[in-house]
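Hey team,

Filing this mostly as a record. A colleague (T.K.) asked me to run one chain through the structure pipeline before their review meeting, and I want the input and output archived in the tracker in case anyone asks later how it was produced. No errors, nothing strange. Just documentation.

Input sequence:
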Amino acid sequence: MPIIQSILDTDLYKFTTGYAYSKLYPRAFGHFKFIDRNQTVYPQGFDDLIRQELQAMSELKLSETEADFLTKELPYLPPTYVDFLRGYRFNSKEVTVELDQEGHLHIDAKGLLYRITLWETPILAIVSELYYSYYHIEPDMEYAVASLAEKTSKLRENEITFSLFGMRRRFSFAIEDWVTQYVKEHSGKNFFGTSNVYLAFKHGLRVSGTHPHEWIQFHGAMFGYKMANYMAMEDWINVYDGDLGTVLTDTYTTDVFLSNFSKKHAMLFTSLRHDSGDPFLFIDKVINRYQELRVDPKIKYIIFSDSLNAARTVEIKEKCAGRIGASFGIGTNFSNDVGSHVKPMNIVMKLWACKMTEKDKWHDCVKLSDVKGKHTGNPDEINLAQRTLGL
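Output structure:
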């Protein structure tokens, strides 16, 4: 049975960003590149297994009940986009998969951005699940149940508001499905929902998601690094008119973002997402910026999503208490915590290059993390972005 069973088995931001591209930049092209930060050596023939899974995805199509769910639960996506998804088919010719002589995996997806963006999360989930399956690594369910029970109990007792953000590096679809059902049954009112659209559909949950780095990377490549955050927020507002009010801060470092963060944006966006660097330093910086803009931080939120576990969320919530709202997106610690013998993969798929039209030349896309050593992209372009931004 193929790993990806539904077009909806993806993160919400793939649809919201895909629609934004289709509305504002329908002729733009993108190149996504797979990056394995651990430089894993994959077995011979692993690339063929991935190609088989990608080919199987061409058979997927949106069902009418799935389309009805999107229409009801994601009202900010217009009927035209839901109709597009009805007719959408994955085309595996958009993706190349190669295994080099050292056993390192290379995956590239190129095409129209509103289409190509939809490959990211399924590819990551496929690589992760295939890897464990190939080596016959089985979950220790006794461990998994005990661990999940402890975490959900701690989150519930401390009234932590959280969502599941675990698709991209999950152990398997079956495990993410089980975790979602368990969390729904045991977490109470503080469980906000899941970013996996299919699992929200299956389990009757709220679809929860935020803003992606790729949207800001695209604007940086097209309009310049100094204007990237500002332009990305303006365009998001133009598309969603106040819905989906969470924005990422660390595409070109949080300090640069906060210098671009205007009174208008501080009022319109309800929350900022923390995804790298020291969360406690981030809290202070964000509150200071809101106060500089004469915006009460107590009416705003920070959504924390960087390598979280239950204990960490409690510490962060205490730091925010009485100062600013706090919510959490917990990913791999829930969807791939199935035993001490299983190490989650450290894989991402990033927007590597883009261009405004097919005839245009490719422009490098980079990401400058708040953590040194985690910058992504062409080294020369990273250097240019840093010099441009005075970093």
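Quick notes for T.K.: The chain is about 45% helix and 15% strand. The mean pLDDT is 95.
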